[in-house]
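REQUEST FORM: STRUCTURE PREDICTION
Request ID: SP-0412
Submitted by: Lab K.M.
Chain count: 1
Length (residues): 223
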Amino acid sequence: MSGTVYLFDAYGTLLDVHSAVARHKGAIGPQAERLSELWRSKQLEYTWVRSLMGAYQDFECLTQQALDYAASRCGGINAQTRADLLNAYQTLSAYRDAAPCLSALRQAGGRTGILSNGTRHMLQKAIEAAGLSKLFDAVISVDELRLYKTSPLVYEQARSLFDVPAGQVIFVSSNRWDVAGASRFGFQAHWINRAGLADEYADCPPKGVHKTLDGLLNGLRSA
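STATUS: Completed
RESULT:
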């Protein structure tokens, strides 16, 4: 592992995107789970649509828009609950395996980074709240490019910063579409499939598939 670059997606991979709604289920009611799923799916959809249109809006703005849409489909929420949910999204809970995995990779001599659709402000606040801020050599936001994943330019931004060939970067994401984009770019892309989802993008396969970040670490150690 020594000298290798390990690049992580943030939202859904290190940070639990559903933890914001989980904290306020009582205020949302029986549609809480559906609202959380819709919020996430629309948030991602808006990034792809904005990139294709060439009409960039930052991730914080799209997160707000996606929440408003999801809430409208789930019976609505009041202004206080909306504010509470958006505040909670700024301080999402880290998965329990995130810090141990990152720490182990760094102790073995690896360099670690985040490559995320999130704004730099969102990412810094989130990783500080999650206790992860000292575990990265770089935190890279697409905001500088005004373009979202899966554009090859986003992955090139990270490769260039670490100044290594694409094939020497181990990229880790829970989003299969992100894994596909990273794989096609040339990264060694690993899929964290926590939910046991069916595979897709057969022409852009992952280097490895793992249920957790613990599984990723064990797989890397045995490779």
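NOTES: The mean pLDDT is 96.
Reviewed by: T.R.
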